[in-house]
Every structure is written in C-alpha cells, then in structure tokens.
Amino acid sequence: MNKICIIIVTIIFYVQVSAQIKTDRPDQTESSATVGKGDLQIESGILVAYNGSTGFSNRQILLPTNLFRYGLSEWIELRIINQFETRSFDFPLGELGAKFQGLSDLQIGTKIQLLHDDNKNSEIALLSHLVLPSGTIELSGDTFGTINKLCLSHSLSPKLGLGYNVGYSYFGENTGSLTYSVSLGVGINEKVGMFIEPYGEVLNFEETSLNFDAGFTYLLNHNLQFDFSFATGITQQMNYLSVGCSWLINPSVAE
Questions:
Q1: Total-model pTM
Q2: pLDDT for res 21
Q3: Which pLDDT band holds residue 232 (cuts at 50, 70, 90)?
Q4: Which domains does the chain have, with CATH numbers?
C-alpha cells in the first residue's frame, strides 16, 4: 500500500519522454512512432535485474541488450532484438545455485503505424515480434513465441505526452499473457525528459502482476540520446536498474 501511495503522489508531480529522438527505451511502453524511411536506429543498454521469492532468487544481467530499427517506409519499420545474458539462480535449503551465460532468443518483427493525426495529436501503431528458439540452450525457451502490442500515444501539450500499450504474448505454453503499460512524461527542456510508468501482465489470464518504473533521457545532439531508468515490483519482489543510449544513423533531417 505504501508503494502505491508513493506512485500516486509521484504521478501528481511528474508526468513518455519528450525528446527529439523517438525511442522504445528506456520505458516499457513501445512508442507509436516508426523511424523514417532508410533510417537505422540502434537502441542499446545494460540492465541489471533481481527477482525473488521465499528461498529463491534470480539475478539477471543483460550486457548488452540491442534493438535495431530500420525504416522500410515512412510507416513500416523492421525490428531485430538480440542480447547477451547472464543469469544466476539461488535455491533454498543450501542447494547449489546455477549460473548461465549466452545469447537470448532472437526476436524479429515489425512496427506498422496505423494512424498519425497532427490535428488530433494522436498516433496508433501495431507491433509484432516472432521469438526464435535460437539462444543458448540454458537460456532459450526452446519453442517459437510471439509478442504483439497495440501502441497508442497522445500529445497533451508541447511538453506533456501520454503513451500506452496493450498486448498479448505467447511462448508455446498455457494460454499466453495479456500485457499492459501506461507511460506519462514531461520534457523538462529541449534536452532532458522524465517519465513515470506502471506496467505489468496477466499471466495465463489468471495471475496479475504490477510493476512501476521511472527514469529520464538526455539528448546530446539530434541523433544521440542517453537514458537511465529503474523499476520495482508492486505485487512481487522485483527490481532493476538500466542505462543505455540510442543512436539514429542517416537521420531523415539533415543537420
């Protein structure tokens, strides 16, 4: 209850990040924007995460995590995600833990912008990824999966924006999960932006999880942006820290 109160108070004072580079990091809400035709955007970072329960913990390091976005047209982009992962497990009752390193399963997908209305200050996009069982044996899901999201955003003012996603993920077992996120952000100035975001999923359409994250971005120049974010679990023991950068190559708008 205390965590929920803190989140509510913070939302009152701070409201997806307003920046010149529209990225899909560092928050969990995927942007409704696509990169320009012929543009390549690389979004990379480091994430250190902890998940725990009674007598069991799971520590994860993603170094690096990479998202490559290439504009096939002004409203369709090709997306590839790959990452090198270190994961360690600690078990109860003095049992020996385990540690694994290697590549996570490769994701290939697309984002298609369905609506871009300057008059209404709104955007809608559909994102879909195919997860390929291509990773290191201990880290792979050993089956094909899919991640799908409907991405919506609204510009509330020149510096204030709202983005939200609703989606469905399936990894070959049970019934899959409903995912959701809502990101509120403010542009502090032309270079600095902040965001705050509740996000989570309904596992197998039965068990609901809720988390909270926040962070900021710093725009170094028109094609290079740095970010920092952190998260904590509301309904389970979870936290992470992440730092990263996004680099727009061959930007559509010349310097």
A1: 0.88
A2: 86
A3: very high
A4: 2-249 (2.40.160.40)
